[in-house]
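queue> pop job 88
queue> type: inverse folding (structure -> sequence)
queue> payload:
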């Protein structure tokens, strides 16, 4: 190894080129800061290359596959449909390569210096970067740790099993599973189960460590109904006891609701646990405080217990989501540049790109009840929405929870087509401390899924136009209106 004998000076260095890291670097350049971005692998991190983007390629393909029946209703016949996994993998590679190239171009255009290599702290103002046989030392005024996190297998799951897959591996699979066993209860577990089922796999869900999905009870009830309709078997309160590889695939023994069961499949996906990628950074030598799970503790400006070092994204406490990393990354450099940014993750949306999709923001009905709030609650079924009828996406609803004493909106929850896109509107309403009238006042595009939000709010006081009044018998199983 060749060691640089002279340390090189840098104003701001960022460790990690994932969505948080490169967003922070570009924002720093926009604010006039000289910035160097250190990345061991590919720009974009796990999110762009093996996580968020590849997974959404699969969920998008699955959604299109699920729409083929409705296409025939519209008179669009393209022959017998079939699924080619190799073509999808090629498309996934093309998308990730184009997006990664775009990030590289943006960094270059903003004069962000890219340093390839593995970084580690060697002082409160110094960092060492190893790249092959080369080892360089940099001094810095400020540094931001944005090295992300990694998936680890849950207890009871063996390592080095090619049929045992984590989130960064399942979307590189070279064959479509005949029977995929999904072990988890988070959003990625639902996305994997939903998309691989739509693409032709048999799916069984082992709901890890919980007796149901962790959404508002109405969403959970509808989700269970739709999964049952798709013949996706669910075992609740599941804990894997053993996994054995066989000639045909994989055998899983697990405990569910007090009894032991066995299920055989061709592949096993585990959501797993995540650990921060900080082991090789040397944090403890310099007094950077971590919690018991290894996540870095930060203040409101993303500063660690060492004033010159900041941390963002998955290495910090809280939800492990790209949107958090991006928000924190921008705020950290704004603080370094002398600003006073604010990061409030109170209304961070829960998003699932399942079929249909799910979005949840704010308090659930149960959480609000536990706080002793006098509530108004209403659900508007998408089957009564004109555009849902046109597109054939009639499953699901929007549910609104408000405070009856002052009309403030406390939570909005949706399962159905358009949930992901509408989630930004949900967040804005809660961030602005909107009241029921604020959601009803604007003009909503017609016809559109957006109107379902309007009618859900109007229905809080019995004024939704396309809902049969309570107490009156609904003559049709679903309402359809030409307006």
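queue> result:
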């Amino acid at each position: 190894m060749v060691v640089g004998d002279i340390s090189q000076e840098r104003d701001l260095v960022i460790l990690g080129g994932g969505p948080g890291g490169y967003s922070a670097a570009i924002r720093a350049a926009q604010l006039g800061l000289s910035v160097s971005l250190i990345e061991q692998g590919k720009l974009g991190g796990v999110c762009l290359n093996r996580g968020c983007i590849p997974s959404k390629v699969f969920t998008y393909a699955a959604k299109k596959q699920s729409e083929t029946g409705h296409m025939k209703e519209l008179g669009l016949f393209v022959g017998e449909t079939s699924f080619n996994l190799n073509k999808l993998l090629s498309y996934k590679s093309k998308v990730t390569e184009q997006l990664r190239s775009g990030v590289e171009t943006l960094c270059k255009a903003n004069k962000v210096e890219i340093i390839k290599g593995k970084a580690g702290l060697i002082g409160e103002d110094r960092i060492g970067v190893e790249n092959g046989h080369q080892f360089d030392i940099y001094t810095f005024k400020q540094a931001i740790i944005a090295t992300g996190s990694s998936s680890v297998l849950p207890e009871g799951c063996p390592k080095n099993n090619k049929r045992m897959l984590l989130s960064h591996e399942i979307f590189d699979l070279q064959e479509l599973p005949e029977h995929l066993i999904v072990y988890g209860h988070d959003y990625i577990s639902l996305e994997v189960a939903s998309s691989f089922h739509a693409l032709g796999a048999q799916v069984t869900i082992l709901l890890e460590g919980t007796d149901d999905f962790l959404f508002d009870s109405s969403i959970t009830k509808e989700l269970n109904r739709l999964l049952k309709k798709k013949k996706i078997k669910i075992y609740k309160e599941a804990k894997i006891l053993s996994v054995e590889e066989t000639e045909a695939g994989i055998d899983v023994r697990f405990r569910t609701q007090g009894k032991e069961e066995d299920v055989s499949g061709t592949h096993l996906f585990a959501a797993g646990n995540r650990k921060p990628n900080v082991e090789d950074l040397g944090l403890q030598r310099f007094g950077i405080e971590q919690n018991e799970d290894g996540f870095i503790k930060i203040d409101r400006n993303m500063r660690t217990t060492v004033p010159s070092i900041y941390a963002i994204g998955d290495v910090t406490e809280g939800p492990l989501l790209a949107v958090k990393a991006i928000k924190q990354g921008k705020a950290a450099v704004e603080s370094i540049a002398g600003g006073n940014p604010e990061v409030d993750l109170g209304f961070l949306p829960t998003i699932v790109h399942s079929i249909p999709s799910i979005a949840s923001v704010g308090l659930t009905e149960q959480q609000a009840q536990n706080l002793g709030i006098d509530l108004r609650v209403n659900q508007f079924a998408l089957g009564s929405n004109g555009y849902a009828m046109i597109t054939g996406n009639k499953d699901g609803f929007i549910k609104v929870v408000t405070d009856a004493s002052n009309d403030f909106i406390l939570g909005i929850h949706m399962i159905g087509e358009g949930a992901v896109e509408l989630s930004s509107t949900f967040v804005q309403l809660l961030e602005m401390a909107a009241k029921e009238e604020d959601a009803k006042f604007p003009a909503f595009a017609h016809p559109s899924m957006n109107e379902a939000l309007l009618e859900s709010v109007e229905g809080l006081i019995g004024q939704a136009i396309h809902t049969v009044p309570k107490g009156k018998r609904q003559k049709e199983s679903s309402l359809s209106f030409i307006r």
